[in-house]
Each structure stands twice: as C-alpha cells, then as structure tokens.
Amino acid sequence: MLYRVRRVFPPEEWVCVVRLGFLATLVLVGSFLCARSALAEPSERAVQAGTSELDRDAAERKALGLKASGMSGERAARELRAARASVVTAVVALRRAGYGNKDVAAALSTFNLVDTDHQAATLQSAEVSADEIVAILKEGHSAFAPVLARALSKLKVDDAEIAKALRHNGYEPANIVHALEALGMDASDSAKALAQADYAPGKVALALKDSQHTATATAVALRATGLAQGAVVAALEEAGLSAKDIAKELRLQGNSFNQVAQALQATGYATTAIGQALKDAGADTQTQVAALRSVGTKGSELIAVLQAQKLAPAELGKVLLGAKLTPEAAIDAMRNAGMDWRSVIKALHGAGVRADLIAKSGKARRLDAGELVAGLAESGLATSELIAAVQAAKYSLRDIAWALRAGDVAPTEIALALKANGVKQADVTVTLHALKLSDEQIVAALKGADYPLASIASEITSQKLSLGKIAFVLKEAGSTCEALAEAFKANGVARGKIADALKQANCDALELARALFALGASRQDLAAELKRLNYDRTWVARALKTLGASASETAAIMRASRYSTGDAALALRLCELSAAAVSSALKSANFPQAEIKPALSYAGFKE
Fold first, then answer.
1. CA torsion sign, 550 to 555 to 561 to 567?
2. Is the pLDDT of residue 577 over 50?
3. 535-539-545 Cα angle (round to 5)
4. Is 310 exposed, middle or buried, given 0-12, 13-18 or 19+ CB atoms closer than 10 A?
5. Which among 237, 537, 550, 585 could disulfide-bond with 571, CB atoms 3.0 to 4.6 Å apart, if both were Cys?
6. Crossing angle of helices 271-280/299-308, nearest 10°?
C-alpha cells in the first residue's frame, strides 16, 4: 500500500500528505470534544470553561436542590466539587441543606481530606462546634478518643470543651481521661476537665480509678477540683476507694504514720476513719494515738477512735496515760467522749492510777458517791479499800454507806469496813441509821463488827445523841435544814452551835447558809461561819451568790474573811464568772493589785 502511495505521490509531495493527515486528526479530535462539551452538565462545563469558585449562597442553593432530588451526600459533595466549591463551602452548604454527619464525613473524603487533624481544621473553618466535629469525625471512622482529643487541642479547644465533646458523643469517662492524658495532662487537670464537663464527683473518681490511678492520686485530683472535703470523701467512697487504700499506698511509698494521718485529714476523713485506716496500715494503738495527736486530734476524739476499735477500758486507760495524758486530762477526755463514770474508773484503775486519786478526781467533778463506789467495786477493790479511797476524797460516811448498800453490800460488811478504816462507833451507828435500818438490823451489824453490846445499846438510844446527831436524825426524817435551824433557835441554841449541828446533819453549804440567813445572819457572818466549818471556798462564794451577793460584794466579804487573793479568784471562777469579771471584782474588793494577775493564773484562767 505504502509503495502504491509513493508511486502516486512523488517524494517531495509525501511530506505534504503526512501534514494533511495530522491536521485532519486534530480536526476530528476537536469536533469530538465540542460534541462532548455540548452534552456535559453545566457544572462540568463551568469547570472546563475556567469559571471562578462557587460562592456559599450558590453552593447552598445547589445543595438544597441536590437534597430535594434525593441525591446522597457523597454524590452531592462530588457535584459541589465539580462546580468549583471549596471544601469549606461544600461542608457549609451540605449542613445547611440538611445532610447529616455521615454525609459531611463522606464529603471530606470526596475532597481527599483523610487526615483527622486537617478534617477537624476544615470543620472548624466551617463554623462546626467541637461537639459536632467529634460526631462527624467519629462517623468518618476516626473513633479513637486520643486522636479526636489531639485534633481538638490543635484547634485551641480548651480541656473542658474537649471533655464535653467526647462525653456528648458517648465516650466513657475513663476513655476521656486517657485521651486528655495523651495530651500531657496530669490526673488533677483531667479531673478538673471532667468536673467542668458536668461529671459528678463520684464519676470523676471512678474514671481516675479505672484509668489505673492510685487512690492517693485520685484523692489529690479531686481536691484540686475545689471540692469540699466531705464531697471528696463521698466521691472516693462511691468509686470504692477508702481511707484504708490511701493509708496503705502512702505507707508503701515510705511515708510515716504521722504523714499518713495528715494526708487523710487533709482529704476530709473523720478522725474515727483515720484511726481505723492507720490500724489497717499496720499501726499499733500507741502509734495510732501519736499520729492522731500530731494532727491536733482532741482527747475526746481519740477516745471515740479507740472505742470504735472495741478497746477494753483498762487498755484504753493505758493507752491514754502512755500518750502522756495526765489522769485528770484522761478523765476529761473520756467524759467528753461520752463514757460513763464506771467505765472511766475502770480505765484509770486498769492503767494503775491509785484508787484514792481516782476518788479525789471524781469528787472534784462532783461525782456521785454511788457511781464512784460502783466503779471502784467493779474494778475489783475490796470494801475496806474502797471505803478508804472514798473517805480520802472527803465523801460523807452517809454517802459511802448508801453507795455500798446500792451495791448490795450487807450492813455487817459495811460496819466492818468502816471500823477497819478508823470510823468511830458512834459514826458507824449514825451511818447505819442513815440507811433506814431498823434497830434490830443496826444491832446485828454492830455486833457482827465486834462492838461491845453495851455500847451498841447506848448508841442507838436517841436520848444519848448529840445535838448534831439529833439534827441528823431529824433531817433523815424529812426536816429541812431551815426548819431545823428555826427549831434550835426557839430552844435557845446559839447560832454557832446551830451551824455545827446542821453541818453534822449533812446540810450542804447552800442549805446551811440559807438556814442561818433566815435566822438573821448577815452575809459577812455567813462567810465566817462557813469558813470556820471548813466548807470549801467555792461553796462560800456560791452561797453568797445564792443569797444575792454581787461578784464585787462576794470578793469583799471573802477578803474580810481573810481568804487569799488566789482562793477568792478560784472561788469566783467556779461560780462561772469570766476572767474579766473576776479581775474586776478583786480590784473592787481592794485585793492587792500585784496579786490579782497571779491569782487569775492560779484560778486556771489563761492569759
């Protein structure tokens, strides 16, 4: 064929033939493209024609049309791209046209955006919220929480908003913690973010726990959120974490028990819980007490801790004294903790405190003789030892005898014990009379105590009783001290002897003062009588106060009665006056100015 062509066309014309063929080919291709262009969609023709980028309004109108036609989001995205819409414009248009998150995610892929960070940045440029960014990216299979958190962080979204976005899209709190910590946050920052994302404290604690944080770290993180101490403890408990867990962790880290107690107190645990946690972490009782005292725990709170651990009273007493508390301080601590006197006495006696010291402390606190005797008896003291101790505390024989009878001690044993402690037969007889025993019972008791029968008969004969014993018998029969005083005065008995008789009848200072005052004695005379009868200075002050004396008058009367400045100050303080009131009264009574300040200190007032 070629040969024939060459024969038809000379060589010089061959070049022309080739050129004409090439031109014809170009014409055919051009004609094909023109025809195709005529059949193409308008959007595609615009691209081929090189028109400008589609604006947002036009893109939105186009997207609405595509949505109305039922076109999928992915195809709609392709159409918008073909129409020269930017990816941001396309996202805005699709969202306004009602396409969902899955469609928007597909659009990003259509525009060849596969990197999560770039996708997030594009969505932010399209004014998509952090919550919706996460939802769209999650639809696009970027479901790993740390990746989403990183993308939002690069967009300068704050920690709390990141946590909220993840929460609103169904991520668990523990996953959110992992995501936040992948951004370099510590447990405290993560806890704050979760709290700001409206997670309840208990959920925050559980999230930290599930993220393998220790109980200690979880407690510190909760405190960092600004929670009150009680709320921190409640959140830890909701997450199944206890003071015991924290205590054991801190001990494993090398912290002392004192440091453990400080940490638990700062967290907000109650003293009882701290004590139990220290015990669970290996602290013995003395160590617990030392650690609790190092954080300022009061004595009464220490008692509550030890009681909660079922410590026996004797062991409790040993612990308190071993912690360098004085017996007086230990008594106050146990009483303030709600312990009854019998338990207090057992604790002190079990710790080795002498019975007479226990009795004197009880007397100073106006302890009823029955409680004292019962407590000492339950501590194992013999009746004679018990009476000796109670007598040393200046309890009356009558009170002692009644207390013994309340403890079912037989009258004969009472008489023997009183006799063994040097009580005179007459006083024993009066004491037995005070128990409302019949003559026969009294005789049997005295005989059992080996008193001579003749003296027994003499003692129980009322005509042989002294004025004081008569007063005693009458008072035991129900007469008041005032009525006794009036009766004695009518019989010509001098006021001094009346006072003696009333005291022997066990009238207390207030009864005696009222009785003598009713006879016309002045308050000054009353103070002198009470002092002569060896009533305590405090009772003198109380008697004067009961009879209407002011603090200043009381101080003046006590000065006139030759009480020291210190005695006057103490008496006034025990009348429940303040330091300022006592000081003013002493000054008003002309006590030496130089003695007032030491007297206030002696009375127990702190500077």
1. positive
2. yes
3. 140
4. exposed
5. 537
6. 50
**pTM exceeds 0.85 for this model:** no
Q: What are the CA-CA distances from residue 255 to residues 25, 46, 279, 572, 588 (Å)? A: 93, 76, 15, 50, 58
Contacts of 338 (CB under 8 A, 6+ apart): none
- Residue 2: predicted pLDDT: 37
- Kindly state the tokens that stand for 64: 């609405």
Residue 471 in this model has a pLDDT that exceeds 90: no
Alpha-carbon span 127 to 88, nearest angstrom: 9
Distances (CA, A) of 372 to 344, 367, 400, 434: 10, 7, 9, 19
20 by DSSP, 3-state: which?
helix
CA angle (422 as vertex; 420, 427 as ends), nearest 5: 110
Mean of the per-residue pLDDT values of the chain: 81
For residue 52, the 8-state DSSP code is P
pLDDT average, residue stretch 506-526: 90
Q: What is the pLDDT of residues 63-118, one digit of tens each?
A: 899 889 989 888 988 989 988 989 999 999 899 989 998 989 888 888 888 888 89
Under the banding of pLDDT at 50, 70 and 90, the label for residue 474 is low
Q: In sequence order, which residues have a C-beta less than 8 Å from that of residue 522 and are 6 or more positions away?
A: none
Give me the pLDDT at residue 220, please: 92
| CA dist list (Å): 548 to 105, 231, 514, 529, 554 | 94, 53, 11, 18, 9
Question: What would the DSSP string read from start to end of 350-386?
Answer: HTT--HHHHHHHHHHTT--HHHHHHHHHHTT--HHHH
Is the dihedral angle over the CA atoms 124, 128, 132, 135 positive or is it negative? negative
The H or E element spanning position 574 is none
Handedness of CA 435, 441, 445, 446 (dihedral sign): positive
Cβ-count burial 29-44 (b if 16+ within 10 Å, e if not): eeeeeeeeeeeeeebe
| Amino acid found at 477 | A
Contacts of 575 (CB under 8 A, 6+ apart): 538, 541, 542, 545, 551, 554
Q: Which residues of 513-551 are buried (b: 16+ CB within 10 A; e: fewer)?
A: bbbbbeeebebebbbbbbbebebbbbbbbbbbbebebeb
Predicted local confidence at residue 355, as pLDDT? 85
Q: Which residue has the tokens 């601590």?
A: 333
Chain length of the chain: 607
The pLDDT of residue 417 is above 60:
yes
Taking a C-beta distance cutoff of 8 angstroms, is the pair 512, 503 a contact? yes
| Angle formed at CA 96 by CA 90 and CA 98, multiple of 5 degrees | 105
pLDDT for the residue numbered 92: 93
User: How far from each other are the two terminal CA atoms of the chain, in whole angstroms?
Assistant: 134
544, 517 contact by CB (below 8 A): no
Q: What is the four-CA torsion angle of 33, 38, 43, 46, rounded to 10 degrees? A: 60
* Cα–Cα distance measured from residue 579 to residue 413, given in angstroms and rounded to the nearest whole number: 48
Secondary structure (DSSP) of 478-507:
T--HHHHHHHHHHTT--HHHHHHHHHHTT-
Residue 21 main-chain phi, psi, to 5 deg: -65, -40
Write the CB contacts of 173 (distance below 8 Å, at least 6 apart in sequence). 167, 194, 199, 203, 204, 206, 207, 210
